[in-house]
Amino acid sequence: MEPAEQLDAVKHYTIQKLGMDHTGHGLDHIRRVVKMTKRLAKDEQVDEFIATAAAYLHDTIDEKLVMSVKEAQDELREFLRKIDFTQNQIHAVMAIITQMSFADTLDGERPTLSPEGQVVQDADWLDAIGGIGIVRAIYFGGKHGERIYDPEMAPRENMTRDDYRDLRHETIINHFYEKLLKIKPMLNTKAAQQIAAHRQQVMLDFLDEFKDEWASIR
Ligand code: ADP
Ligand code: NI
């Protein structure tokens, strides 16, 4: 199979797996991550084929979205083999998508990603901040029954992976302090950090306005 045909097959695999998602991991998210990945991959001169494949596939094995992570990984490896990915290419893609999540940075050391992985991680994380990030956090929090805000509830420091997944102790506003505002300095590439600067300010302005309005109602 030609590379373009392989990427087309990868795209269709993702559509089949995530087409019905309503938690903010839908196809619009994937499309943005793929576009940003291609842009960053050119700047950083990394292997665009591996980066693009990983960008498409990065959420198809997410623990929040599949019944069994192991089965989802096995199925994906088998699919990639069928469309003529080499063993090295399969390893490269799997190493990226199993270690690039924000949750993967919480327990112990942050995993070291390949240059391609760093680009895909930046593209994914950029989509969690700024105006789109604000809407995705609200969409996700609403779907999972989070309250919007509780001034008595302090944002958690030094969250573990389990804390991050424990949505009973979360509000949408706390999610900004616990994750979204922390992303900018964690980005791998200069280009992503530059894009993040404006988005960070948008989130800070939003939080100021939200809290001003909240405090003014008594
Ligand atoms: P990653 O993309 O690093 O794997 P997630 O899959 O956990 O991170 O997050 C996907 C999207 O859902 C992001 O926009 C993120 O900010 C949002 N999100 C994750 N957890 C929460 C939460 N507890 N409350 C609100 N939004 C959340
Ligand atoms: Ni994602």
From TrEMBL:
Q: Which SMART domains match?
A: HDc
Q: Which residues form the HD/PDEase domain?
A: 22-138
Looking up InterPro entries in the UniProt record yields: HD/PDEase_dom, HD_domain
Protein name per Swiss-Prot or TrEMBL: HD domain protein
